[in-house]
Each structure stands twice: as C-alpha cells, then as structure tokens.
Amino acid sequence: MNASPRGPRGLLIIVLSTVLGLAAGAAWQWLRQPPPPPADLAATMFPQPRPLPEGFRLTDQDGRPLDAARLRGKWTFVFFGFTHCPDVCPTTLTVMARLKKMLAAGPDPAPVQMLFVSVDPKRDTPEVLKRYVTFFDPEFLGATAPMERLVPMTRSLGILFAYNNQGRDDGGYTVDHSAQILLFSPEAQWVAVFGTPHVAARMARTFRQIRSYYE
What we know:
Helix 3 crosses helix 6 (200-214). The radius of gyration is 25 Å and the shape is globular. Strand 2 (58-60) and strand 3 form a beta hairpin. It is built from 6 helices and 10 strands. It is of the alpha+beta class. The protein has helices at residues 7-32, 68-71, 88-105, 126-136, 147-156, 200-214, and strands spanning 44-51, 58-60, 65-66, 75-81, 112-118, 141-144, 161-164, 174-177, 181-184, 189-194. The strands form 2 sheets. The protein has an 8-stranded mixed beta sheet.
C-alpha cells in the first residue's frame, strides 16, 4: 500500500493541486462568459439572444402564415404600426428602405428582410398591407394577427399600443404605438432594439457591429 504524502512537501503538493484546480475552474467559467457587447451602439443589444414569443404566428400580405420559420436564415428588422398612421410609420418605413439598400451595397452584405407588423388588424387586411408595404419596397413583408394573439405577443416584446378616437365623431381612430425597431437573428432570436430617432447610416453601422458580435 502506498503511503499518503507527509511532511511539508506533501502539504505543498496538496495546496498547489487545489490552487491549480480552482484556477482552472475559474478560467473555464470566464471562457464560458459571453464577451461584452460592442460600445457606442445605436441600439440596445442583448448579450444573450432572447427567444421569440410562443404566440409569434402572423398572416402576411399574401395570406400566408408567417412564424419563426420565416425568420430563420435572415436578419429581420421588425417595426410595429398601422397603415393609417399619418407620420411615424411612413417615416420609419422610409428609413428601413434606405437601411436595406445600404446593407445590400456594403461590404459582405448580409441576408436581411424588413417586416412591418400591423397593430390594427381590423382595417389592415392582407390586401391593404400589401399595397402599403410594397410602396416602400417591393420586398418588404407586412403581417398581422388576430387581437387575441397580437396583444400577448407585442407585450412580450415590449411593444405597447392603444386605440385613440379622441376628437373623432366619424367612428375613425388612430393607434398610439411604440416606435422602436426590433432586430432578430437568422436563428429567429431577438437580439437588439433600435430606439428613436432612426437614422439609416447609424443603424447600418450598428447592425454590422451586432452581426460581427454574434457571428
């Protein structure tokens, strides 16, 4: 039977083994941590991607289902609004069209798609959505969902909206809504939020930083 280490030398071996083991464990934990997000971004980026809400099931401008499968394989910029919007929505979609062109013309272009989600499903039928989004870009996607799915989905993504008929006596209404643009990765995971003001050049630069971080 081998004797266990005794004396100062044996104690030193035990201490060194323990220290090295702890150091190796700490190094492994450090290596597993994600790197810090890039600095000076024109967006709020999540260090860890967030999954899509379970209720992410929409109908697009052609009447086809639009779910997580349609987001996979491309970076997707998503904006929530409504087609009767007088200012914020057309302005934002114009910026998104400009952004799409910038990303396509830049070095190492990424597969990108733009999605407009209506929070006014009563008026924004597939036909209405198609006329609206293709005015800004023929490849833009438009989609919506019944209110019972739309409300929990938007809330889980931090999107708020409310109907407003103040000052109207014709039965019409507007919709007050959040103005941020969400970014989803080619794995259909939520990775960033672009707040206002939306500037295409700044968004293009930030997108390239985010893409580099995740890829």
